[in-house]
Amino acid sequence: MTTPAKVWLRFFLIGYIILMALWIVSLTSPVPYGDLTRIGRLSEREFGWTAPPPKVDPAYLKGTPVDQADVLVIGDSFSMTFRWQSVLAKAGYRVSTTYWGQYENALCSDFDQWIERTGFKGKLIIIESVERLLGDRTKDSMKCQKMIRPFDAMDHPLITPDETVPSPAPNWNVQFLTGITTYYNTWKAKKSATDIHFDWNTWVRPVPDGCKLFSHRSCDKMPFFAEDDDNGPLTPAHLEWMKNFTKAHSKLPIMWMVIPNKTTVYLKPDYSKDFEAGFRTSGLTGPDLYAFTREKHTQIRDFYFSNDTHMSMHGQLELGERMLAAVREVVPTPPSKSP
């Protein structure tokens, strides 16, 4: 006869074996190195990029104190690696970078006075925003009267991107169910012929000619950030705020740098078409990055990261070249190089 103690021990051993199996599966799952593979719990073996990115001399990845800068960048995560700014630095421009998030994602009515207090004596301010966040930043800025937080520029990148494909390593910080969830989500994504949604705002969608555009194994499909769709397109109303802001703060030239969403670039090129058309004829200073990304994403493999929502380092350096051309139209020669 089976005693209660033996029954309990049997269930304990079965549970222990199951938990150990789940832990081993999770432990051997590659550590995520992309935002979308991490939050969507998708395999880096299938969706991680494999083409090593170009390397940048660390000498061009150092921020300049704002009172010594030629160009001031107010940006978001697309500027946190300093990679596109490195092209300006290599050309001799001294660049100081700060971020929307440090100031509650708003540029307020006293913007000119705030800039004056920084000691900035340069020739150009670049305001950079990804498409999906500019709408909310516009709304917050319209309501904001005073920049409360003091200016704070970074002297180094906030994000240090991988310069080689990360090697497989044990995932020691993983949860028990992460591995099996990752395997299941990846299997489901590969099997699906249509768009499919996963945890934490991640879509996996078929991409036409995807294997010509990306280096990852499952290159016919791609993770995308749900906020690209959920936050809505940019409109002429957003453009009107940009025009009014530029006019109200005209002491220094302002250049606008609106970076299209990954979903816009690869799947929905007309997503913000009214804003895009209006920007071209608005008189605002700044390159048309919709046209730029529309052209370059078919020419540069892994122009955006396969496993992330951001532009890759291949793309960022090409973006830097485009921004350098735009900066030279306003400031032809770096002031630091002027006689």
Automatic annotation (TrEMBL):
<feature type="transmembrane region" description="Helical">
    <location>
        <begin position="7"/>
        <end position="25"/>
    </location>
</feature>
<keyword id="KW-1133">Transmembrane helix</keyword>
<keyword id="KW-0812">Transmembrane</keyword>
<keyword id="KW-0472">Membrane</keyword>
<protein>
    <recommendedName>
        <fullName>AlgX/AlgJ SGNH hydrolase-like domain-containing protein</fullName>
    </recommendedName>
</protein>
